[in-house]
Amino acid sequence: MPEKKIILSGMRPTGKLHLGHWAGALENWVALQNDGGYSNFHLVADYHALTTNLDSSHICDYTIDMLLDWLAAGIDPEHSPIFRQSQIKEHTELHLVFSMLITTARLERNPTLKEQVRDLNLGPISYGYLGYPVLQAADILLYKGEVVPVGEDQLSHIEITREIARDFNRQYGVVFPEPAAKLTKFSRLPGLDGKKMSKSLDNAILLSESPEDVRTKMKKAVTDPQKIRKGDPGRPDICLVFTYHQKFNQSEEQEIRKGCESGQLGCVDCKMRAAEKINQFLEPFRERRKHYEQRPDEVRKILDEGESKARAAAQKTMKEVHEAMKIG
Ligand code: TRP
Questions:
Q1: At 142, is the secondary structure helix, strand, or coil?
Q2: pLDDT tens, residue by residue, 221-276
Q3: Residues 302, 160: contact at Cβ < 8 Å?
Q4: pLDDT 10s digits, 5-50
Q5: What is the CATH number of the domain that holds 228?
Q6: How far is CA 46 from CA 132, 221, 257, in A?
Q7: Distance 151 CA to ligand 1 centre (A)
Q8: 231 contacts 288 by C-beta, under 8 angstroms
Q9: Pick from 45, 21, 52: which is nearest to 120 by CA?
Q10: Backbone dihedral region of 231: left (phi > 0), alpha (psi from -120 to 50 degrees) or beta?
Q11: 25 in ligand 1 pocket by Cβ < 6 Å?
Q12: How many domains are there within the chain?
């Protein structure tokens, strides 16, 4: 049997996830898991959460909320161990080794960092935040991840991971693969105001949203400003609701396009049709979420087992690292 390719991906624990997380990455995690040709590992990047917020009091609750969404979305913990970065100490060890292999100038050039510093209005940043991609490289390479399904904002981090893998292999001998990012088609799903979907912008539809809330939120969605009333022709290609149809209602996409362009389909009807499709899509998520919500012990056990499996893999790699470096 051919060896399975290793998938490694993770998210910072930011609480409940939304459709943007699904469309940007989670969808690929589930698809690759179900493909059969891969072996998945998924981590909660709880140390990474500290880079932009030192307050750690919500990390545990946010972790559970996020795990419930992963499970609701179809991550099968039997096949795909899920674990917290903070509980596998090899992440911090490998991070230290890697931190010697990259210059501060290279990290300062990282476009994702620059964007965040600007968007979040951060002042001078910490040493740990500058090293964010170094810890991420450790996350990926500790499991010898080959494929990293992420959103497009992570591409610059994966590039740094590849450079670090190459530099380590050149310096000490080949231990690591050079991982490749894998993007989804809708890697940046728009939120209800047309900007990137994000909880902090209050423009998100959560994976755990109730059917009524999906409808209420959808009513507020911004559409083509030139289409003021039913009968006015609209421009689907600039309308975020049409993007939702493209994503969640492919079978009616052409009909919706025609209806919008001709003016026959009004925005309210169009939004409600999108809301229905999103609700249908989320229905199985809701059921699985309910199952796990009612069984916190089961979730705890999934995490314990995931962490045992991850720890075994991490220890094995760290041993190879020490051997390659001829220390230990
Ligand atoms: N940086 C990722 C994010 O913000 C989270 C993350 C941490 C990650 N470690 C990772 C993603 C390793 C992929 C692989 O979403």
A1: coil
A2: 999 999 998 899 999 999 999 999 999 999 999 999 999 999 999 999 999 999 99
A3: no
A4: 999 999 999 999 999 999 999 999 999 999 999 999 999 999 999 9
A5: 1.10.240.10
A6: 12, 32, 42
A7: 9
A8: no
A9: 52
A10: left
A11: no
A12: 2
